[in-house]
Design goal:
The protein contains 1 helix and 2 strands. It is of the alpha+beta class. The protein has a domain of 31 residues. A two-stranded antiparallel sheet has the order 1-2. The longest helix is centred in the middle third of the chain and has 20 residues. The protein is elongated. The relative contact order is 0.14.
Length: 50
Amino acid sequence: LVERRTNAEDRRRVEVHLLPKGEALLIRLAAVHRAELRALRGVFTVPNLE
């Protein structure tokens, strides 16, 4: 789902990058989460829900 890469400028740093499978999963999870927030709209105030 993710890949760790050493930073080219500072080799002490490690960057984490989403792989295509991870990005696809994140898109699906975000859609499910938005649906859950819409369902809670009448119970809670949900800012910036589009």
